[in-house]
Structure formats: structure tokens, C-alpha cells
């Protein structure tokens, strides 16, 4: 029996609480005796979430059982937290076998000194703040969750479900996690390294229709000729005018945007298909496996084959 203790506080994000709670409760339903989920606030009083819902905790943090997994959700209440909450986390966080944060819950862990020297992430809108206010934390703004030893941090709300499913898979096996995912009608499972934003969302959408059409063309055809000259011709602009307008309206150069799209597409194929590296490199416009290898090493610090070994889910039998 693993006790999962969820910390509650005023202006908590309700989905940060209920998403992981449903995962662990679902695992307990399909395999009795696996988890006991408990919630607690500082004084045991009900808390009002940022969306206006009221959550009634099981008790106070002082009286809560020592948890196997201590889960800290995010929300507006993390911006100016009660010092007593930070103090409790500082004292009790190191005692948990597993320390987990969802969204801006990472800010609370960082305030308590529990992320110092560790790699961590949070909601994309707060990664800069986390890095600025806590320079001892190695902030990675890209993935939907990061696992560093016994400490796991996740990005925006739904990524807490992805991380919780990964933890259930660690504890009980893939079939148990898959059963929970099916009941919740969610994927099992988005790998933690998956970007918080797709290439299209990370860049701004161009205002002018020809440039928006070019963005869509790039996304749908990463293996095509995507040099500036070819893209400019599609937008019916000169290469110089196109490059300047594209960067002005999207915030990135055409080349950088193409690089992001190709890398994202290649990662997806490595994770989801059995296609060989040579085949994927052609499909994504790299041309050769060596060109794709250089792009992966530059962006991810791992060659394609190593990336696949790390992040492609093991086959089930």
C-alpha cells in the first residue's frame, strides 16, 4: 500500500489535484491494495480552488500519514504561499519516497529548497520565473515532465495525468497503467520528453494568409524542399522579403521553424513507428542519417538510435 498525499491550499488548480488523484484512485480500483490517496491542508479546512470549486481535505498536514508519494499541485496559490506551507514542505518533503509536483507546484518545491541541484520543469509560462528566482534549479522548459531521481516535476495541468500514469506503470506495470488510461480515455502515455508546445504552437501564427499557408505547408510536408527560396515562391514574395516578414510575424526565422518541425516529426516517428533511421531521415527532410544525427545531437544531446532506446515504449505481449 503506497500512500499518496496531495497537498491542498487556497487557489489551487483543481485539475492539478483531480487529474493525478483519479489516476491513483483508478489504479487502486483495478488492483486493490496498491494506493491510498489522502488530501490535507494546513489547518484541515476546506480550500477554494482557482476555478471556484471547494475541496474538503481528509485532515491537516500535521496529522497526515507519512506518504510514499507527496504530490504538490499548482495554481494561483503558489504565487504568494503561506510560509507555513513552505516550511512544512521543507521539513517533510525529504522524508517522502517520491516527491511530485504538477504545474506551478514546482515553485513551492523550489521555495522549500527541494529542487536545488536538480533538473525540473513547470508550466511554460513560469519556467523563466523558476529559473530566475531559483538559479540552483536546472530548469528545462521543453518537456511535459521531468524525472530526476526521487523528484518528478510536470508542466501544465494535463501533464500531471501523464506523469501519474508513468508512476503507476513503474509501480504496477504497463497493463495496470493502460487499464487506468482506458478508463480515463487518455493516451498511455505521452513520453515525458514530449514538448509542451508543438512547433506550431511554440511560434506565433502569422497574420498574413500567405505566410500562414506556408507555415501549414511546412508542417504537413517536412520532407519537401523547404529552403527559403522555395517557401518564398509559395508565398509569392522575394526571398529577402519573405524571410524578414516570416520572422517578424512568427518570432522565428524560416530556417529555425523548419528545424523545429522536422525535429518534432522525426521524434514522433522514432517513438511511434518501427521505421529505420535512414527512412525517417528522408521522410523528415534531413536527406541522410548523418544530417539527422547532427540535428538530434545539437538539439537533444542524443543520437536518433539512442533517443529511440530511451523514449519509445517497450512493446507489450
UniProtKB/TrEMBL annotation:
Coiled coil: none annotated. Pfam families: DJ-1_PfpI (PF01965), HTH_18 (PF12833). Keywords: Transcription, Transcription regulation. InterPro entries: Class_I_gatase-like, DJ-1/PfpI, Homeodomain-like_sf, HTH_AraC, INH-QAR. GO terms for molecular function: DNA-binding transcription factor activity; sequence-specific DNA binding. CDD domains: GATase1_AraC_1 (cd03137). Residues 212-310 form the HTH araC/xylS-type domain. It comes from Streptomyces fagopyri. This is Helix-turn-helix domain-containing protein.
